Amino acid sequence: MSNTALSVLDQTELLQLALEADSKNDSGSALAYLKEAASRPDASAPALLLLGAHYASLQLNDRAINALEAAVAADPQMAIARFQLGLLHLTTGNAARAIEVLQPLEGLDENNALRHFSQGLRHMVKDELAAASEHLQRGIALNKENPALNNDMQRIIDEIAKAPIEQCTAEPPPTTDSQHVMLSVYTGLSSRH
Length: 193
Hints:
Blueprint: H1 3-7, H2 11-23, H3 27-39, H4 45-57, H5 61-74, H6 79-91, H7 95-102, H8 113-125, H9 129-142, H10 147-162, H11 181-187
């Protein structure tokens, strides 16, 4: 689709087209739609979140961090964007920034999965492995909307279980299934309260 054709589409249309392209494994088209949506003055937090998730799936971590930072700036209450940003900082070795980004999620409702996932990751960084596993398991039990996120958290629990007691890596294992990452992140938008 040409730039002229893209220019007549609004944010909602661009997001829907990006999700449709992603569901068909058309990464190039999905990226084009998201970049167009994110480049506009009215760029929405969901567009920036999905762009960040797409960049992360392509292992373009600096670009992913920039897009997710912009999503959090556009909507500081979008819990899934904040969580994805914190997780990305953690997986790229910036544990201090991850803890800072994740901290506001502690204020979410006790029954919010992202609160427990965040607490689990923060405990993991501090080598508090039992508490980390406990919170991650609680988050999995509460999370009914985003199975892909549960799979990622289960992989972290499995890695924690393998770690010697005196040792823990601050980096969760990389996600091996990057297909439809945008769709799973978008599904997680309902967890923002």
